[in-house]
Amino acid sequence: MDELTQLICELRLHSSIFYRSDLASPWGIAFDASSELRFHALLRGECWVGHDRMGEPLQLREMEVVLMMSGVNHWVADQPGRSLVAGQAVLESCDLGRPLFQEGPTDETLLCGRAAFADNDVALALLNLVSPSVRIRHGDDGGSQVWRLVESIDEEVLGEAPGHKVIVDRLTEALFVSLLRRAVEPMVAASGVARALRDPRLPKALRRIHERPQEKWTIAVLAEHAGMSRAAFARRFKSTLAMTPMAYVTGIRIAKAKRMLASGDSVDRVASAVGYESPEAFRKLFQRTTGKSPVAYARARP
User: Fold this and answer.
1) Could you tell me if 124 and 262 lie in one domain?
2) Which of these, 35, 63, 156, 248, could form a disulfide with 138 (CB 3.0-4.6 Å)?
3) What is the pTM of this model?
């Protein structure tokens, strides 16, 4: 089994379609940060997508798909600057039979899916290394395959034939795997996370780091969890993941801090949750690592 296949198998995705609608301008939907992956496929028209780690918003055209990684606040609208309605409110209106954004010509059609995954933080570590959003165009390498899956999903959603829910979920899972392959493939060799998953000892230490990033980890303690000597553990860790154990710990702490800040947690609470008794020490590390202060990062949310 190749490394990419192993990584995706470790994620154990459970996927579904959560929204499909024809939309009339003006419209805009805000999606809060979530532990789930999400995709938005534009079946018709043009729209815009933005998120808290993006400079300029991205224009999405017909037959294009954008994959949003977990932990990313984002929005989708017919134009930048629109007033945004919370995604939950949009879904509740649909459930009540009163879908929003229906006044006037419906020029856009949007299909949205979500994917939850098993609690396997070792595998998910790789997703912290890739771009928070990935666009796939119909003309891109593999883009036609992605779009065939989108069309098949939409056909089943509209047809509502017996068993269509099972088929939709399976097709959506296949779509997420295809999207993830394009997002993750360039990073697999460089990150070493997939190689670490196959190692007989390293996953034991990695799992501890992900479960309790706030612990005062040392190479000696991690080596003990891995059942190795300190020197052997440090050598194998760096040769496999191309970084030192302490650099990896810092990366996981920063990734958790970003998720918490995006969810509105205070700087003091985030600092404590990722192992810093001094909020000031955390602020300095966050600034040095990300180029932004924790407050500036939190304020950049849409």
Assistant:
1) no
2) 63
3) 0.67
